[in-house]
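ok new one. same drill as before - C-alpha cells go in, u give me an amino acid for every spot. 140 of them this time. try not to just spam alanines like last time pls lmao
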C-alpha cells in the first residue's frame, strides 16, 4: 500500500541520515550514499529464517526469547504465507542495501573548486561531443 511504501522510504532516509552523520562525525568528507531494494523469494518461511540467521540478523532484537516454540513458528509460517505469498506460493523478502563511499581529509587531497567556477555547462555537453562516438574504448 501507499502508506507502507512511504514508511519504507522514511526508513531508508533515516538510515541514510544516520550513516551520513556517523561518517561526518568520523571526519569523512565527500560522502556519497545510494540504496537499492533487492527482493528475494523463498519457498517457505523456514528457508527465509535460515537466511536471516545466516546473516546474523536473528540477534538484532534485544528483548526476544532465545527460541520459538514449534506451534508458534508453524502459526507464523501460515500467517506469513497468507499475507505475503506470491501466486506461485513463494515468499518475497525485500532487503534494502545501502552503499556509501567517503574520503578522509588529507593535506594532499584535492579541494573542490568554488561554486560557479566551471568553464563549461552540462547543457553544452552534446555540443562538446558532437560527431564523436560516445562508446568508451571506441578510439575517438
Amino acid at each position: 500500500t501507499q502508506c507502507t511504501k512511504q514508511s519504507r522510504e522514511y526508513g531508508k532516509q533515516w538510515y541514510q541520515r544516520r550513516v551520513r552523520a556517523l561518517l561526518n562525525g568520523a571526519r569523512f568528507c565527500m560522502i556519497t550514499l545510494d540504496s537499492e531494494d533487492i527482493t528475494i523469494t523463498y519457498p517457505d518461511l523456514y528457508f527465509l529464517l535460515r537466511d536471516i540467521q545466516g546473516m546474523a540478523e536473528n540477534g538484532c532484537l534485544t528483548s526476544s526469547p532465545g527460541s520459538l516454540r514449534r506451534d508458534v513458528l508453524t502459526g507464523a509460517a501460515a500467517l506469513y504465507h497468507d499475507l505475503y505469498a506470491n501466486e506461485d506460493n513463494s515468499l518475497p523478502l525485500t532487503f534494502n542495501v545501502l552503499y556509501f563511499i567517503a574520503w578522509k581529509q588529507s593535506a594532499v587531497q584535492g579541494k573542490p573548486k568554488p561554486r560557479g567556477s566551471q568553464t563549461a555547462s552540462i547543457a553544452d555537453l552534446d555540443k562538446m561531443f558532437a560527431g564523436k562516438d560516445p562508446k568508451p574504448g571506441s578510439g575517438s
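The mean pLDDT is 81. and btw The beta strands are 28-42, 91-104.
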